[in-house]
Amino acid sequence: MRLLPLFPLNLVAFPGEKLNLHIFEPRYRQLVRDCLGEGLTFGIPPFLDNAVQELGTEMRLLSIEKTHPGGEMDIRTEAIRVFRVEKFFRQAPGKLYAAGQVEDVVQDEEADPALREVITRQVRQLYEALGLRKLLLQLDPKFRIFDVAHHIGLSTEQEYQLLGTTAEQERQELVREHLERLLPAVLEAERLKERVKQNGHFKHLLPPQF
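Structure tokens predicted for LON peptidase substrate-binding domain-containing protein:
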């Protein structure tokens, strides 16, 4: 176990994700200065249901992009790994910010190639229906579930459930089932939009032959 500075937020960060943050509270400005000066990392445990959750994502500070006149900062960070909070402290020793005794969560990253093919088709179908051409072009053939998890219509609670898995194949199953439920509703909504657009237009229709 090790002591990790914590920055609870009402979001879920996934390993490999780049996250830009605007830092304005004095305690987290202190956290950023410590990360910069001492080479520390920090953790983002999601704040859900009015509570700091036990799972979180360790973040590395990449850069301070801008420091505002009032001391606020715009920073770039990268998510490294998932951890579990064993003991939470509202303040780290001698600091303004929170901390926790944490343990790393070991991940099995082996994907099921057949499942990946199914999910790839589902994701492409979703992005095409929603007109998300940019995301479609960025889709890596060897993507991990964490790479697309923010762009497939999961709620924050579902994203946290995904963060709690320890195997890529388990994540694949969760996402396949989610997209199986989601896609029919999305496609029907898109068909409805097309029907609404056509209302009031002159239509060239062939009458039935009888």
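The helical segments are 26-38, 113-130, 133-138, 145-148, 156-163, 168-198.
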